[in-house]
Amino acid sequence: MAKADQTLTSLQKLYDKRSALDKQIVAAEKKLVSEAKTPAATTKKTAAKKTTAKKKTTAKKPAKK
Question: CA triplet 33, 39, 41: central angle to 5 degrees?
Answer without folding.
Answer: 95
